[in-house]
Amino acid sequence: MAAFLIIAVAMISVACATASACPTCKDGMTSDPDTAMMVRGYFWSILFMMSMPFAIFGGVTAYFYWHVRQARLSELRAGAISVHSAVKA
Question: Which residue stretches of 1-35 are H helix?
Fold first, then answer.
């Protein structure tokens, strides 16, 4: 168990050193005009990936809302429910 703890601490310390270097690399790349477009591409790809869960959830929610609304309208047209219960729902 102690050996596992020592290995875990060593791996975490190595990962922390790597993670702290990332902002420095980004700042160095933005000042270089040759790589500035690549940094802009990273920005837009991160923004796109962060918006996807909200877009997917919103799309699925809108689909189910539309599907339920169409079902209620078809029931109303068929006379299965009264006009007053359709308005309240």
Answer: 2-31
